[in-house]
Write a structure and sequence with these properties.
The chain has one helix and no strands. The chain is mostly helical.
Amino acid sequence: MEVVALLTAVDALVGMDCTALNVTEVLVGTTLLIKQRNTKRRNYRLSCRAVWFY
């Protein structure tokens, strides 16, 4: 009975670690995509301004 309780506790900890890792992966991926998209928009705006002002 004690072994079952110990395995259940360890399994819960492993499950929480997997969830934390998945959340971190999603947050990092989203942050990188947002930064990449903002850089592209900024470059596009700069090129449009250059065309309009010159």
